[in-house]
């Protein structure tokens, strides 16, 4: 049997039409989320977009006003207990108690999960070691740095061996080194088969980690796709051709349309979404003109461009799909 990304049996998270308002403020205005098991999904949005609200609903901490969701195959509305057993949540609702040590926090978690004492100690020692907290284990958690607290928080979540982890802005406020450590931890979680639902306001983080990204804005998912697909949604992508032979440069500049010339550097810039089809069109044009470039490079806009284009004053409603085919030389001559 072939499976599609939306095969419900393959999805760790499948939500349809989720709605939530606080008073007369609509925070989620009908959002759909589909997260295949064993992948990292990032919900990206500016402050106040509703990311924490979405995590709250999917992790049973908040009730939705409308919509349905299945988490690890369990219906959120009717099987909340089973959902809770399958997930872990860390982030803005940190469970770390600063008054007790890191180790005591972990043992408390093991008790909550009804692990036998010896098993609780074993799991605690193993996770503290894995998250580089063994040395600090006997110190009160209030003395930990921001990065250490986040690591402890994730370690505590893993005591219950969840299949799905919700990480709500896991690196907000961390320095670059701690942020990279956290990224490594997240990658390792996924390589072990865990599904990660990550919220972030950092585009770079989504770009680095996520298999798929959804941009939340104005209560709706305004775009969804891989980082590369999202980057293709905004203008600014181009193909750059560099020549060393001025005659070849001139021939190419004449043969290709819509090019921007940089005579000093002998480079031509052609607007392009970077898709295979558009690249082939450029190459066909060059072949037809009998010119060869010394170097061809594709430049796609970064996620910052996408984010501002999608969450600016003119929201774009789009599903990331490869844009309309470019005109090929054959089609052009046929006109
Ligand atoms: N319990 C609540 N009561 C009233 N309003 C709420 C409540 N929880 C959230 N909100 C409002 O809902 C909106 C979305 O909040 P939410 O925390 O989900 O956003 P967010 O995307 O996580 O933002 P941030 O990045 O700042 O954490 C905000 O305007 C917030 O003030």
From TrEMBL:
It comes from Streptomyces mexicanus. GO terms for cellular component: plasma membrane. This is ABC-type xenobiotic transporter. Residues 13-243 form the ABC transporter domain. Gene3D superfamilies: P-loop containing nucleotide triphosphate hydrolases. Its EC number is 7.6.2.2. SUPFAM superfamilies: P-loop containing nucleoside triphosphate hydrolases. It is found in: Cell membrane.
């Amino acid at each position: 049997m072939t499976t599609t990304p939306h095969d419900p049996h393959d999805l760790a998270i499948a939500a349809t039409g989720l709605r939530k308002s606080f008073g007369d403020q609509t925070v989620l205005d009908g959002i759909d989320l589909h997260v295949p098991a064993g992948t990292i999904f990032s919900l990206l949005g500016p402050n106040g977009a509703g990311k924490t609200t979405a995590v709250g609903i999917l992790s049973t901490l908040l009730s939705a006003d409308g919509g349905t969701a299945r988490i690890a195959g369990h219906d959120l509305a009717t099987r909340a207990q089973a959902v809770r057993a399958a997930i872990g949540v860390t982030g803005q609702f940190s469970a770390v108690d600063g008054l007790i040590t890191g180790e005591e926090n972990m043992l408390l978690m093991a008790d909550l999960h009804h692990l036998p004492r010896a098993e609780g100690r074993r799991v605690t020692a193993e996770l503290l070691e894995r998250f580089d907290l063994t040395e600090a284990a006997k110190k009160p958690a209030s003395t930990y740095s921001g990065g250490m607290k986040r690591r402890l928080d994730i370690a505590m979540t893993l005591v219950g061996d969840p299949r799905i982890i919700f990480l709500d802005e896991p690196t907000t406020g961390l320095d670059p080194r701690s942020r990279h450590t956290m990224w490594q931890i997240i990658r390792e979680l996924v390589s072990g088969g865990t599904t990660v639902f990550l919220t972030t306001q950092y585009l770079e983080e989504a770009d680095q980690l996520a298999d798929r990204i959804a941009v939340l804005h104005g209560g709706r998912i305004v775009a969804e796709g891989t980082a590369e697909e999202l980057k293709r949604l905004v203008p600014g992508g181009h193909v750059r051709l560099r020549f060393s032979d001025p005659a070849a440069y001139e021939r190419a500049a004449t043969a290709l349309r819509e090019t921007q010339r940089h005579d000093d550097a002998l480079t031509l810039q052609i607007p392009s979404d970077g898709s295979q089809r558009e690249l082939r069109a450029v190459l066909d044009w060059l072949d037809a003109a009998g010119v060869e470039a010394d170097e061809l490079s594709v430049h796609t806009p970064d996620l910052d461009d996408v984010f501002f284009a999608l969450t600016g004053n003119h929201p774009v409603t789009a599903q990331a799909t490869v844009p309309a085919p470019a005109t090929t030389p054959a089609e052009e001559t046929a006109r």
